Amino acid sequence: MTHRWDESLRVMCSDFAGTARELIFLSRQLSGRTDEDIHRQLNKVHLHLRALTHQIRLLGNREVQFTAQLVLHHAYAVRMVIGENKPDDRGGIYEEPPGERYNAALMSFYKSVRKQLKVEDPEDIPPFDIPLSERGLKLDEEGKMPSPDETSSL
How far is CA 21 from CA 4, 6, 17, 137, 151, in A? Predict the structure, then answer.
């Protein structure tokens, strides 16, 4: 049965997921540079992610709220370590680097939202980085991508 808030939650969570991916993209673009425009964009995206986290608290179940907060928690580390080349303040707490923690939290968020929205097979989500072997490319004997001139016929 669909609830009257499902569409609102879907839209809100879609915005959250897109904003979360934008944050890591901008952090990688900034990556220690002093580009003020990218820095401003990153600030804006981080603030938007914070606001969406609070909006999700209105409609998301406990698991959705928790996973959204976890994404926000790891967003700070992504921003500091990847974007600003600063040390990982939480490195002693976690074994994985910030980017991996962030992606794992975001994947948990996707799954929890899909469960709440009663999507069929809510856990069936491909990884962020699809292995080359699954992209239809044939790898060479060493498991590497073929050179561009070898793929020109594709």
Answer: 28, 22, 6, 25, 29
Which sequence spans correspond to the domains of the chain? Answer: 6-125
Tell me which of 3.30.2130, 1.10.530, 2.40.50, 1.20.120 is the CATH number of domain 6-125: 1.20.120
* Per-residue model confidence as pLDDT tens digits over 81-136: 999 899 998 888 999 999 999 999 999 999 999 999 999 999 988 887 766 555 56
Q: What is the DSSP string of the chain?
A: ---TTHHHHHHHHHHHHHHHHHHHHHHHHHTT---HHHHHHHHHHHHHHHHHHHHHHHHS-HHHHHHHHHHHHHHHHIIIIIIT----TTTTT-SS-HHHHHHHHHHHHHHHHHHHTT-SSTT----SS--GGGTTPPP-TTSPPPPHHHHTT-
Rounded alpha-carbon distances, angstroms, from residue 127 to 30, 63, 105, 131 = 24, 21, 12, 9
Is residue 141 pLDDT above 60, yes or no? yes
